[in-house]
Amino acid sequence: MPRIARFVRSDVPTIYHVISRTALPGFPIETAEKDYLLGLVRRLSKFYFVDILGFCIMSNHFHLVGRVYPENHPTDDEIRNRLESWFPEDKVITDQDIIRFRTRWTSLASFIKDIKQGFTRHYNQQHNRDGFFWGGRFKSLIVQDGRSLINLLAYVDLNPVRAGIVKRPEEYRWCSLGYHVLTDNRDNVLSLNLGMREWGEGNPSEMLQKYRQFLYETGAVDTGKGQPMDAKIVARERKKNFELKRFELFSFRARYFTDAGIMGSKEFVQEVFDQIKHLLRSKNERRFTPVSGIGGVYSMKSLKLR
Q1: Residues 6 or more apart whose Cβ sits within 8 Å of residue 291
Q2: 113: helix, coil or strand?
Q3: pLDDT digits (tens, 9 = 90+) for 12-26
Q4: Residue closest to 211 by CA, chosen among 69, 65, 112, 19
Q5: What is the 3-state secondary structure (H, E, C) of 40-98?
Q6: Which of helix, strand or coil describes residue 107?
Q7: Which H, E and C letters describe 195-231, residue by residue?
Q8: pLDDT-based confidence at 293, cuts 50/70/90?
Q9: Which of 21, 172, 199, 246 could form a disulfide with 61 if both were Cys (CB 3.0 to 4.6 A apart)?
Q10: Helix, strand, or coil here: 190?
Q11: What pTM was estimated for this model as a whole?
């Protein structure tokens, strides 16, 4: 049976949550491998027309949240400038090069392919092996900016806490909050558009602190999947000028952030569904499900989509 085509919007900037898992047993992505994979994301994001909003590299999989821009977004000069860094100095850049890389550098599939293939080559060289490293096709979910995005970013950054690896997400340097805090967002890899503007927050100097507060409050909620943040840690943070009203509880089920095909307001889900419904084999009417614990956010579940 042929695979369902990936949900992609090619005419407007679109946020995607990508998940890819290793095909190898155990936990093969160790410290050095995590550093290399993060370095690949950092280097490639300088060429691709994508804003990196969040990430988390675990020992057997990674999450990446990014806004991918359509082909009509970059100018020819922007592409040419990036090609001058990409190609050797004596390379003559042609109009065909600009056309080819315009398509490539605005493609989610090409971006993830370059990350995964680059990592596989490095891993195989380091471990004197051949063959696949990643297990099959990566998952991708279209996400609406705002409330859906900030809850998704919290879910991604809380992975190492839920897994019991660290007590605080910023202690884990291979997640986006850890990267912000521990490296001061080196090379400006991460965008500070954290989905908070619908709460009236647009000051970049305050966004990260408010996101951290939101993340701590979110992490304290026991979702029944993985470990919540230590309540004593959260309480201590509140006492240290941790002035934050509690946002809506984060008592959602994690599958909405991994197995849903589309997530956002009901109107957004309907809009995207109308654009991509021709890709689905089923003729049945799709039901949009409210995501538990996040008011106003809906999911179009497509649990067979991979």
Answers
A1: 252, 256, 263, 297, 298, 299
A2: helix
A3: 999 999 999 999 999
A4: 65
A5: HHHHHCCCCCEEEEEEEECCCEEEEEEEECCCCCCCHHHHHHHHHHHCCCCCCCCHHHH
A6: coil
A7: CCHHHCCCCHHHHHHHHHHHHHHHHCCCCCCCCCCCH
A8: low
A9: 21
A10: strand
A11: 0.81
